[in-house]
Write a structure and sequence with these properties.
This protein is mainly α. The protein is built from twelve helices and no strands.
């Protein structure tokens, strides 16, 4: 069986396992929309402006992918490592990349599903009206720019145990979300925080997705930053995964 076929099998069974805990599925689907309703809808100035509403909606889409990457990958991977089944799987001849790709694919399905109610709420209750092609481009880039968040989740799941992974993931999520300008627009940041925020992958993802949705130029620093974060975190994740494999399973 090829690596892609194995990855598809792992993705299918990850989704089946997740669906057996309905509250986990509902939490992933509802949390981004709930955050949008709490942080955006109560603000008439944001809700009634096409530009501000579109930017806020895109920020919550980035948040949906970020939170799914951190929680689904970080906590799930840590829990799998603590179960007897995962060490057994890692002794089999199948490539380790198939298991990671399967988990990534399952997380992507959950993230895309969580985006649907968010877009419906934004379309019904705000003036967010991006051009169709801009909206499609922004959604595609939301998937691509979520790579650093997913890699951070893999690092958390590989380097920590199940209990520690929950705490580390929660701290990472709030630091990245607030620091990345997902809950409070970066235009309201003090100068020092705005400069520091520009180095965060979530802020870079937000700038890319928001500017594409608005049909404006994407800042070059955001593109360079997201590529750099993806490359560096990919290397670190591979090293951490191999180190864990050599220490625990050989």
């Amino acid at each position: 069986m090829s690596t892609l076929a194995l990855a598809a099998t792992h993705a299918r069974y990850n989704l089946v396992e997740t669906s057996r805990v309905p509250i986990a599925v509902l939490g992933s689907l509802v949390f981004p929309s709930l955050a949008f309703c709490l942080f955006v809808l109560p603000q008439p100035a944001v809700r009634g402006s096409a530009e501000f509403a579109t930017a806020a909606l895109c920020s919550m889409v980035v948040f949906a992918f970020m939170s799914a990457g951190l929680f689904s990958l970080g906590i799930e991977l840590a829990e799998q490592r603590a179960k007897p089944w995962a060490p057994y799987l890692r002794t089999l001849p199948g490539a380790a990349s198939a298991r990671i790709l399967g988990l990534l694919s399952a997380t992507l399905v959950i993230s895309v599903t969580a985006m649907v109610p968010l877009l419906v709420i934004g379309g019904l209750f705000t003036q967010a009206r991006p051009e169709p092609l801009d909206a499609l481009g922004a959604m595609a880039l939301a998937v691509v720019t979520a790579a650093p968040s997913g890699l951070i989740g893999i690092l958390i799941g590989t380097l920590t145990g199940p209990k520690a992974a929950i705490a580390v993931t929660q701290v990472a999520m709030f630091l990245l979300a607030f620091g990345g300008g997902l809950f409070l627009p970066p235009q309201l940041f003090p100068r020092w925080l705005d400069v520091a925020s520009a180095f965060l992958p979530v802020r870079q993802a937000r700038e890319i997705v928001v500017n594409v949705a608005l049909g404006t130029a994407v800042p070059l620093w955001a593109v360079i930053g997201i590529v750099a974060w993806t490359l560096v975190l990919s290397l670190v994740a591979v090293i951490a995964y191999r180190r864990d494999e050599g220490r625990r399973y050989r």
